[in-house]
Structures are given as structure tokens and as C-alpha cells.
Amino acid sequence: MPSPTFWSVFRLLGGVFLVLSGPYVFLVEGNRIFGVLCVVLGLVWIWREGPRLYRTLRQDSRSP
User: Fold this and answer.
1) Phi-psi category of 30—alpha, beta or left, where left has phi over 0 and alpha has psi -120 to 50?
2) I want to staple 39 with a disulfide (CB 3.0 to 4.6 A). Which of 3, 22, 27, 55 is the partner?
3) Residue 64 — pLDDT band, cuts 50, 70, 90?
4) Using CA of residue 40, residue 41, residue 46, residue 49, what is the dihedral sign?
5) Distance of CA 44 to the CA centre of its chain
């Protein structure tokens, strides 16, 4: 089973993917509302997941 650090990084990358896909949806697909929503949700996701990843990395570095 993967470590908690793996899952925190995986969730953080999900937020990054949302932020990066927002401009594509906004400009290429022409769906402005969904493009903006992707960016906003991605930023909120990163905002919430960043500290969790930081705590997980600190805990992993302390354990022998």
C-alpha cells in the first residue's frame, strides 16, 4: 500500500492539473465558466493540500 506522502503528492498534483487545464478549457474549448471554475477549484485544492503535504513530509523525516 502506498505511503501517506504518495497520496498527498497525488492529491496536490490533482489541484495542479485543474489549474493547468483551466486556461485550455477557457481558451480552446470556449467554456469560460468551466475554465474559471477549474482554476478556482484547483487553487483552493492546492491551498488546502499544501499544508497537509508539508505536515506529512515533516512526519516522514522524523520517523527512523
Assistant:
1) left
2) 22
3) low
4) positive
5) 8
What residue type is 2 in one-letter code?
A: P
Range with lowest mean pLDDT among 13-17, 50-54, 56-60: 56-60
**Residue carrying the nine cell digits 497520496:** 7
* Mean predicted lDDT score pLDDT of the chain: 88
Q: Name which of 24, 16, 5 is nearest 41 in CA terms.
A: 16
| Cell of residue 37, nine digits | 471554475
| DSSP per residue, 3-63 | -HHHHHHHHHHHHHHHHHHHHHIIIII--HHHHHHHHHHHHHHHHHHHHHHHHHHHHHHH-
Specify the pLDDT at position 15: 92
